[in-house]
Fold:
Amino acid sequence: MRIATWNVNSVNARLELVLAWFEAAQPDVACLQEIKCVDEKFPTEAFERLGYNVAVHGQKSYNGVAMLSKTPLDDVRRGLPGSDNWPEGAEDHARYIEAVTGGATPVRVGGIYLPNGNPIGTEKFAYKLAWMDRLRGHAAELLKLEEHLVLCGDYNVIPEPQDADKPETWAGDALFQPETRASFRALKNLGLTDAYMEVDGSPGGYTFWDYQAGAWQRNHGIRIDHLLLSPQAADKLAGLVIHRNERDNEKPSDHVPVVVELSL
Structure:
C-alpha cells in the first residue's frame, strides 16, 4: 500500500499538475493539504474518474484538507477532537481529516495541516502549540486501538538542524523554535516512527522550497512534510520516496509529494 502526503497549495489552481502526478504515481491513499476551497468547490469528480473515493474538509480561500483512496473510506472524521476545550474566540480551522481505508488490511490515516505559527510571540504561535497539544492527545487515543496508523501531512516543523539546508536562517521562525521541536518529539515519543528517518535519515530529505530567492535552484530546502507510523504500521514499512521532480514543474506547489510504502 502506497500512502502519500502533499501540500498542493491550492488544488484548483494546480489541478492539471496534481492529476498528472496521481495518474503517474498511483498512490493507494493520498492526503492533500492547503486545498484552499470549500467542500463544494473541491474537484471531486476529477479524482473519482481516476478511481478514488474522496473525503474533504474544506475552508474558503485558506487551509483545507482532503483524503483520496482507491478503497472506500470508513469512520471519517473532520477536525481534531477537543474543540470544547479550545480557547474562547479561537477559530477551529480545517486542518485535520481522518479515515479508515477499506482494504483487506485496514489502515487508519490522519491527514494533517499543522498551523504555521508565525510570527513568534503572537497568538498565532500560541495557536500552533495548542493545536499540537490537541494532536498529541488524539494520537495517544488512536495508539490505544493498536491499528495500522499513519499520521501524515504538512507539520510545519523542522525537527532537527539537518532538516534544513541553512538552519541558521530559520532560527527566528516558528517552524524551528525549541517549543515546536519539543512538541514534535513528544508526539513521536508516544510510540510513533518517523518514516523518513527509519528508511533513510540522511540530511537533505527536503520536502519544501520557498518561492523566494531561488530556494529551489540553490536547494535551500527544509523537511516539514512527515509521515509518522504506529508500531503496527512501522513493522510493515517497506520504503519511502520524496517526489522532488514535482518542484521543477511550471507553477508548482512549494511542497512535493512524499509517499510511504507498507507491505500489507
